[in-house]
């Protein structure tokens, strides 16, 4: 009995000793200078992009922009990107297919023949769904909406995956601003051709009031479009070959998506969608 008590006390002391050692180790680590994310995990190093100019057709590097790897360097989820595409294609679609019921078709006011005596089937109207030219049972009724709301984090991950895909394919560029020297559409055509940006280009700025020259120049070109940050979506990014962000737009997208990826109110955001909220 004494040996059992001594052994138990030794275990307790051993546990306390190991806890004290661990506590001292944590204190020593805390006193060391803090390490950044790159030193702790070199595979999560921030992405770096050249900041280009738009005031000349020839490309000029004016700086370097660092982007968060968790927003612009995430592993792409193709299934979530597909969910976003289907959601955007369907939530604005309204079907106007309409079939008339037996009460809406013309005619059929009287009984076609007596109920009994003629040996024929019992019918009350020639506009019954059983008759040719009659109403349709369980047919489509317009307008029918296909709206549904994709879960919040599926939308966030869709944006993150699409931005990461664009960056990995070298289809994402950052410019200082959207100021161009002329409003001639040919300047934008030459700019896109010189820098090999692809046939269709989407310019994103942090403000919804774009500079006058680029707004007038892009208005005459169907495959070059402008969009503010709050309108950024998966469908538009994949529809265009090249995505061009301003420096302020890239910083705003990075901060907002990083904030949403680390939100703590996930349970309230994933509740069933209500129209009046």
How would you portray this structure in words?
This protein is an alpha/beta fold and 277 residues long. The chain has 10 helices and 8 strands. The strands form 2 sheets. Strands 2-1-5-8-6-7 form a 6-stranded mixed β-sheet, with helices on both faces. The chain has a two-stranded antiparallel ribbon with strand order 3-4. Strand 1 and strand 2 form a beta hairpin. Helix 4 crosses helix 5 and helix 6 packs across helix 7 (212-219). The longest helix is centred in the first third of the chain and has 30 residues, at 2-31. The termini are far apart. Mean pLDDT is 86; it is low at 1-17 and 34-40.
Strand-helix topology:
Elements lengths: L1 H30 L5 H4 L6 E6 L8 E7 L1 H4 L5 H13 L3 E2 L48 E2 L6 H17 L3 E4 L9 H10 L6 E5 L6 H8 L4 E5 L5 H6 L2 E5 H15 L4 H4 L8
Parallel strand pairs: 1-5, 5-8, 6-7, 6-8
Antiparallel strand pairs: 1-2, 3-4
By secondary-structure content and strand pairing, the structural class works out as: alpha/beta
Largest sheet: 6 strands, mixed
Percent of sequence in beta strands:
5-15%
Rg, please?
A: 32 Å
Enumerate the spans where pLDDT stays under 50 for 5 or more consecutive residues: 1-17, 34-40
Overall 3D form: elongated
Order of helices and strands: HHEEHHEEHEHEHEHEHH
DSSP helix count? 10
Report the mean per-residue pLDDT as an integer.
86
In helices, the fraction of residues equals 40-55%
Q: Ends: how far apart? A: 68 Å
For the biggest β-sheet, the strand order reads 2-1-5-8-6-7
Number of strands: 8
């Amino acid at each position: 009995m004494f040996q059992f008590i001594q052994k138990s006390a030794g275990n307790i002391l051993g546990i306390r000793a190991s806890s004290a050692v661990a506590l001292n180790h944590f204190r020593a680590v805390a006193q060391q200078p803090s390490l950044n994310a790159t030193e702790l995990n070199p595979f999560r190093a921030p992405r770096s992009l050249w900041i280009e100019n738009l005031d000349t057709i020839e490309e000029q590097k004016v700086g370097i922009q660092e982007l968060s790897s968790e927003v612009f360097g995430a592993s792409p989820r193709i299934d979530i990107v597909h969910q976003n595409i289907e959601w955007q294609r369907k939530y604005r679609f309204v079907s106007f297919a309409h079939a008339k019921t037996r009460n809406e078709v013309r005619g059929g006011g009287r009984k076609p023949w007596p109920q009994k005596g003629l040996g024929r089937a019992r019918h009350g109207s020639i506009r019954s769904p059983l008759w040719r030219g009659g109403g349709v049972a369980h047919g489509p009724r317009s307008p029918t909406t296909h709206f549904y709301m994709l879960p919040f984090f599926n939308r966030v991950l869709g944006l993150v995956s699409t931005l990461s895909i664009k960056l990995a394919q070298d289809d994402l560029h950052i410019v200082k601003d959207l100021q161009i020297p002329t409003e001639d559409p040919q300047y934008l055509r030459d700019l896109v051709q010189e820098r090999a940006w692809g046939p269709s280009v989407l310019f994103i700025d942090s403000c919804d009031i774009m500079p006058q020259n680029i707004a007038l120049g892009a208005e005459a070109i169907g495959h070059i479009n402008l969009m503010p940050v709050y309108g950024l979506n998966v469908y538009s990014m994949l529809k265009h070959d090249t995505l061009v962000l301003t420096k302020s737009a890239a910083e705003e997208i990075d901060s907002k998506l990083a904030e949403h990826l680390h939100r703590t109110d996930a349970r309230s955001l994933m509740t069933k969608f209500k129209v009046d909220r």
